[in-house]
User: Which sequence fits this backbone?
C-alpha cells in the first residue's frame, strides 16, 4: 500500500477507509490534502474567489455523502477533481442561462467545435499569483480534462509520477506520456515555450 508523502503520511486509501468508519478527521485530512488542487480548478473556471469557495465546499459535502460509492480509495484525487469539475460546469451553465453569455477572453471563442466551454476566465488577481503564473494557470484550465488533471496533480499538487499513477490507477509510463503531451499542449496554447522552472514554481 502506498503513502502519499515521503514522511509516511496515511495513504488516500487508508484515509477513505477510516472516513467510512466514521472518522471525520480522516476526511478532513483528505480535504486539506486536495484543497489547493480543487480550488485552482474552481477559480480557473469561475474567475470569482467567492463562487469558487462555494463550489469547493459543495464538492466536499457531496464527496463526504457519497464516499461509500468510491470503490477505490486510492483514486480519491481524481474523484474529488471530477466532482468539482462537474459543479463548475453546472455553475457556468447557470450563469450562461442567466446572463446569456459567459465572459471569456475577448480573443478566444466561448465554445469549442464540440460545443463545450473552451476556456476558463482570467485568474491572475483571484489567485494572487504573478502574471506568469496566472497565464500558465489560465492555459492549464483550458486543456482537455484528462490532460488538465495530470498536469495539475504534477505541478500544483506536487505529486511524483508514481503517485499520480497510483491515484489514477494507470501505468507510470502512461502518466509520463500524458504529462508530456499536456505540457506540449500548454505551450501551444500559450504560443511559447514554458520553462520547467515556471511550472515547478506554481503554488
Assistant:
Amino acid at each position: 500500500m502506498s503513502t502519499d508523502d515521503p514522511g509516511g503520511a496515511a495513504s488516500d486509501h487508508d484515509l477513505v477507509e477510516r472516513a467510512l468508519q466514521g472518522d471525520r478527521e480522516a476526511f478532513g485530512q483528505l480535504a486539506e490534502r486536495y484543497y489547493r488542487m480543487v480550488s485552482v480548478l474552481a477559480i480557473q473556471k469561475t474567475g470569482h474567489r467567492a463562487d469558487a469557495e462555494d463550489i469547493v465546499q459543495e464538492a466536499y459535502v457531496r464527496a463526504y455523502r457519497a464516499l461509500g460509492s468510491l470503490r477505490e480509495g486510492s483514486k480519491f484525487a481524481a474523484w474529488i477533481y471530477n466532482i468539482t469539475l462537474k459543479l463548475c460546469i453546472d455553475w457556468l451553465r447557470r450563469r450562461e442561462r442567466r446572463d446569456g453569455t459567459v465572459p471569456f477572453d475577448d480573443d478566444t471563442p466561448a465554445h469549442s467545435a464540440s460545443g463545450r466551454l473552451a476556456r476558463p476566465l482570467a485568474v491572475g488577481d483571484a489567485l494572487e499569483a504573478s502574471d506568469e503564473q496566472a497565464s500558465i494557470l489560465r492555459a492549464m484550465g483550458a486543456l482537455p480534462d484528462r490532460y488538465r488533471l495530470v498536469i495539475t496533480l504534477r505541478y500544483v499538487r506536487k505529486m511524483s509520477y508514481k503517485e499520480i499513477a497510483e491515484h489514477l490507477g494507470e501505468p507510470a509510463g502512461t502518466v509520463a506520456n500524458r504529462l508530456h503531451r499536456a505540457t506540449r499542449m500548454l505551450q501551444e496554447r500559450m504560443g511559447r515555450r514554458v520553462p520547467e522552472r515556471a511550472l515547478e514554481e506554481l503554488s
In short: The chain has one domain: 12-200.
